């Protein structure tokens, strides 16, 4: 197993349990203690983890809070972004909406103002919202359920998506960096987003200001692969200038609107 693959597996374990032991990693990955120590050193140098006696824990900046808690974080900015995003949906569209909390606010916005849509999602929270509050056609992607994110991932999800093509897709990510692009803390969710990006005619990334300048382990997309970014007026201006050189359209949600 290559170092990159081992380190992704280590990070996956950390996202699930928040800590890992060197002895457990040696046994599961079938490598030497020195190899694991080197992997942990590399991950710490990148800012992903913090080494502790006998193992490692996640760096606090990479700990993903529960979905229900994150809904209220930067809610005003997220709702503003969602309102801007909804304006790009046309009647009769097939729309992919991913698992993020901004995506939930987009769904609520569409339910208020749109008609005759087909919603495709891997989010249980969004599926429940659509079922309870609209007559939209709903396609829920199956797969392994991530309880803390209320999303579906894994091989069943990707097999389903191989046969799906949509008019417009709305995506989010845990981090945005002008050089490293859009990244996510979870490998499975990054894989779902990467595949759906290939199956959408138009794609929109919704990112609030707090995600700017950070990097997570798993790339969702390069900056130039996303044709439209929607963010809020608190986003870092210098970073926005760099991003605008690589993407077709940047839309700013303003509090006055």
Automatic annotation (TrEMBL):
Keywords tagged on the record: DNA-binding, Transcription, Transcription regulation
SMART domains to which the protein is assigned, alphabetical: DeoRC, HTH_DEOR
SUPFAM superfamilies: NagB/RpiA/CoA transferase-like (SSF100950), Winged helix' DNA-binding domain (SSF46785)
Alphabetical list of Gene3D superfamilies matching this protein: 3.40.50.1360, Winged helix-like DNA-binding domain superfamily/Winged helix DNA-binding domain
InterPro entries the UniProt entry points to: Carb_Metab_HTH_regulators (IPR050313), DeoR-like_C (IPR014036), DeoR_HTH (IPR001034), NagB/RpiA_transferase-like (IPR037171), Tscrpt_reg_HTH_DeoR_CS (IPR018356), WH-like_DNA-bd_sf (IPR036388), WH_DNA-bd_sf (IPR036390)
Residues passing through the membrane, by range: none
Domain of life: Bacteria
GO MF terms held by the record: DNA binding
Annotated HTH deoR-type domain residues: 3-58
Protein name per its UniProtKB record: DeoR/GlpR family DNA-binding transcription regulator
């Amino acid at each position: 197993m290559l170092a990159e693959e081992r380190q992704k597996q280590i990070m996956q374990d950390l996202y699930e349990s928040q800590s890992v032991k060197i002895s457990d990693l040696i046994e599961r990955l079938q490598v030497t203690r020195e190899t694991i120590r080197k992997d942990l050193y590399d991950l710490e140098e990148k800012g992903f983890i913090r080494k502790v006696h006998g193992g490692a824990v996640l760096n606090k900046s990479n700990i993903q809070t529960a979905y229900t808690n994150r809904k209220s974080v930067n809610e005003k900015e997220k709702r503003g972004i969602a309102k801007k995003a909804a304006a790009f949906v046309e009647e009769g569209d097939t729309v992919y909406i991913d698992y993020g909390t901004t995506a939930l606010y987009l769904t609520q916005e569409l339910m208020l103002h749109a008609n005759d849509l087909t919603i495709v999602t891997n989010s249980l929270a969004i599926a429940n919202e659509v079922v309870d509050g609209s007559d939209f056609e709903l396609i829920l992607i199956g797969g392994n359920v991530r309880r803390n994110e209320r999303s579906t991932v894994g091989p069943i999800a990707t097999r389903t998506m191989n046969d799906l093509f949509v008019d417009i897709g709305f995506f989010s990510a845990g981090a945005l960096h002008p050089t490293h692009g859009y990244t996510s803390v979870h490998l499975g969710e990054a894989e779902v987003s990467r595949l759906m990006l290939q199956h959408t005619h138009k794609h929109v990334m919704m990112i609030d200001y707090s995600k700017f300048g950070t990097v997570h382990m798993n790339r969702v997309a390069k900056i130039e692969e996303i044709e439209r970014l929607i963010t809020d007026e608190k986003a870092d201006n210098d970073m926005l200038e760099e991003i605008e050189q690589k993407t077709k359209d940047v839309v700013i949600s303003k509090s006055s609107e």
